[in-house]
Design goal:
Layout lengths: L2 E3 L5 E3 L3 E2 L5 H13 L4 E3 L7 H11 L7 E6 L7 H12 L6 E4 L6 H13 L6 E4 L3 H9 L7 E5 L7 H9 L3 E5 L14 H10 L3 H10 L4 E2 L6 H8 L8 H8 L14 H7 L3
Parallel strand pairs: 3-4, 4-5, 5-6, 6-7, 7-8, 8-9, 9-10
Antiparallel strand pairs: 1-2
Helix pairs in contact: 1-2, 2-3, 7-8
InterPro entries: AKR, Aldo/ket_reductase_CS, NAD(P)_OxRdtase_dom_sf, NADP_OxRdtase_dom
Family: Belongs to the aldo/keto reductase family.
Keywords: NADP, Oxidoreductase
């Protein structure tokens, strides 16, 4: 498994398993299946409501905890009680430390929440801390007025929403770019039938999803595709036996629409909607 080195020296797998909108036995089994098929990074969140099921799946896998990189997030409505929330996540996941904890959105009192994460990081309950859905202005502001530079910023990133500007700012401040929804909304979206993607899939004898995931990982973007289907879980992991050429990367880069389809913290409508969660 290829890894990236975070700004505090911790190594993180470049490909992981996402668990958004999964729960119950589906969540447990898919996490177990992913780990048994080579995944070592597992991503969850307080807001997903599945940390306990993720923990059960981890235990069922039989893989040593020390081999895994577990990521969770604190929901913005819990920022006033970040320490308690992280301790609850530890209990639900059945572990005595977390590899990475993120602040889920730049809403509410995220300054207070960040400083509580800094304290937990200093106590070594968390190996790395970061943020999610932070646009460059909020990210730079957080960096300049706090002690610890976020190790990761997890934002929606895929073929149609490549986040080149955001990626550049993250590079400048040595913050690792992590992509959620790296395959967009799944097999029903138009990215899978994009002519350029299909041509490369035929050339390399790969599925369209594998082409899109390799496109991101070749640019040092961490990806966390999700699925509850064993065949697709295996398929999404099998992307490191080929490399796209520079010309092919440029071709796929040109497809970017630069539009976030799921989460954009700068849209007032998005903020209004989030407040109802």
């Amino acid at each position: 498994m290829l890894k990236v080195k975070l700004n505090n020296g911790i190594e993180m797998p470049i490909l992981g398993f996402g668990t958004f909108l999964t729960g119950g036995t589906d969540c447990e089994q898919s996490v177990c299946t992913a780990i048994q098929n080579g995944y070592r990074l597992i991503d969850t969140a307080e807001a997903y409501g599945n940390e306990e099921q993720v923990g059960n799946g981890i235990r069922k896998s039989g893989v040593d905890r020390k081999e895994l990189f577990i990521v969770t997030k604190v929901n913005f409505k819990s920022y006033e009680a970040t320490r308690e929330t992280v301790l609850q996540s530890l209990e639900k996941l059945g572990t005595d430390y977390l590899d990475l904890v993120l602040l889920h959105w730049p809403f509410g009192n995220y300054y207070k929440a960040w400083r509580e994460l800094e304290a937990l990081y200093a106590e070594r309950k968390i190996k790395a801390i970061g943020v999610s859905n932070f646009e460059p202005d909020r990210l730079i502001d957080l960096i300049h007025f706090n002690k610890v530079v976020p190790a990761v910023n997890q934002i929606e990133t895929n073929l149609h929403c490549q986040r080149k500007t955001e990626h550049g700012w993250m590079k400048k401040y040595n913050v690792q770019h992590m992509a959620y929804a790296p395959l967009g909304q799944g097999n029903r979206n138009e990215m899978f039938s994009q002519a350029e993607v299909m041509a490369l899939a035929e050339k390399y004898k790969k599925a369209p999803a594998q082409i899109m995931l390799r496109f991101l990982t070749q640019q040092d973007v961490v990806v966390i595709p999700k699925s509850i289907h064993e065949e697709r879980i295996k398929e999404n992991f099998d992307i490191f036996d080929f490399n796209l050429t520079d010309e092919e990367l440029e071709t796929l880069t040109a497809i970017d629409t630069n539009t976030a389809k799921i989460g954009n913290a700068e849209q007032p409508e998005m903020v209004e909607f989030a407040m109802t969660w």
